[in-house]
UniProtKB/TrEMBL annotation:
<feature type="signal peptide">
    <location>
        <begin position="1"/>
        <end position="25"/>
    </location>
</feature>
<keyword id="KW-0732">Signal</keyword>
<dbReference type="Pfam" id="PF13343">
    <property type="entry name" value="SBP_bac_6"/>
</dbReference>
<protein>
    <submittedName>
        <fullName>ABC transporter substrate-binding protein</fullName>
    </submittedName>
</protein>
Length: 368
């Protein structure tokens, strides 16, 4: 898996990175005392059912009870998070986020715009080089792969790969977890379908993915509804293509009513990485750094894994044998992730342009 992750960031990202001094982690005593004086940490866009964030936040509260956690807009997207920093540059009040958790492409963009500040956690060396900014401005936190969440009350034969979705038994059954004209998750799902057909990542995969979904739509199998746990359970979207951690969380939330099976497809396995960063204008910079130290500790990383997200330090945790067996057993088989592809920024941008620009013309389904 390490070699796969190391392909995550291509030359396009390297070109964005200028050389500056290395930022080292402060001592924990200094951070704790500084955070104690600040008294608060402001987060944004952290829904409690995403990656186990509810338990992670609670764990942080219990470890540092002197901090009040101010949670802004749990349902915000990555673009909203950056806008919150921009809008509060000169505001040290409760609407100014200290930390952000954003999609991969947003890390370099935020650095280039001067919206984030560098900080290297004490476990920095165990984060794969290709999944972090060399200067410490942003750093991968967790990743997942696109999978099929299947309502087995309604679907008898469980699809195992993308081409299976074209079969007539899946009429009016298959949905994306977002609008591919706007949602990164949905865009990457379309690209995954293209990769499964042998196309190269980037424009070619985007075009092949559009053609796949055009066939799916023409076959009457595609449902132009944004799939989620509710639509999966109600039968409006018996098969939802979404991040594995969201699919597994939905399975748990539904608790067998209906039963849900989560399948990582046999081909076209696309992984998506999210990244952490500290606002350049953070009102509580010590609390922000303490939060990062917690997230990148073994405890924080295992908290994400309990929420079905593969933490970025997964390889280090596995090699040291600190991952509990019950956490591993709750995930799809490890071999399902071995062929995972981590698209580079250039590839993601090329794919996005093809899919957002061509969806209406090629597929013609108004997802909402």
């Amino acid at each position: 898996m390490t070699s796969t992750i190391n392909r995550l960031v291509g030359a396009s990202v390297s070109a964005l990175l200028a050389t500056t001094s290395i930022v080292s982690a402060q001592s924990m005593d200094e951070l704790i005392e500084g955070a104690r004086a600040e008294g608060m940490l402001t987060t944004i866009a952290l829904p409690h059912d995403w990656c186990g964030y509810g338990a992670v936040i609670q764990g942080f509260k219990e470890k540092y009870p002197f901090l009040t956690i101010n949670e802004l807009n749990p349902d915000a997207g990555s673009a909203d998070e950056l806008e919150a920093i921009r809008a509060n540059r000169n505001n040290t009040g409760p609407q100014a986020p200290d930390v952000i958790d954003v999609g991969f492409a947003f890390g370099p963009a935020a650095k280039e715009e001067g919206l984030i500040q560098p900080y290297k956690v004490s476990t920095w060396d165990t984060i794969p080089d290709a999944a972090k900014d060399a200067e410490g401005y942003w750093y991968g936190d967790y990743y997942g792969v696109l999978a099929f969440a299947v309502n087995t009350d309604l679907v008898d034969e469980i699809p195992q790969d993308w081409e299976d979705l074209l079969k007539p038994e899946y009429a009016n059954s298959v949905a994306l977890a977002g609008d591919p004209r706007a949602s990164n998750q949905a865009i990457l799902a379309v690209q995954a379908a293209g990769l499964a057909r042998g196309a190269e990542a980037g424009e070619a995969a985007g075009q092949a993915g559009l053609e796949f979904f055009a066939e799916l739509n023409q076959a009457g199998n595609f449902v132009p509804v944004i799939g989620k746990a509710g639509t999966l359970a109600q039968g409006a979207t018996p098969i939802v293509i979404q991040w594995d951690y969201n699919a597994l969380s939905s399975r748990d939330t539904l608790a067998g009513n209906p039963p849900v099976e989560v399948v990582v497809p046999a081909s076209g396995v696309v992984a998506g990485v999210y990244v952490q960063a500290i606002s350049a204008y953070a009102p509580h910079p010590n609390a922000a750094k303490l939060w990062m130290e917690y997230l990148y500790s073994d405890e924080g990383q295992l908290g994400w894994l309990a929420g079905y997200c593969h933490p970025i330090r997964f390889n280090d945790l596995a090699q040291r044998g600190v991952i509990p067996n019950d956490l591993m057993e709750a995930l799809p088989p490890a071999e399902a992730y071995e062929a995972a592809v981590f698209p580079t920024l250039d590839e993601q941008e090329a794919t996005k342009a093809v899919i957002t620009g061509g969806w209406d013309q090629v597929v013609g389904a108004n997802v909402q």
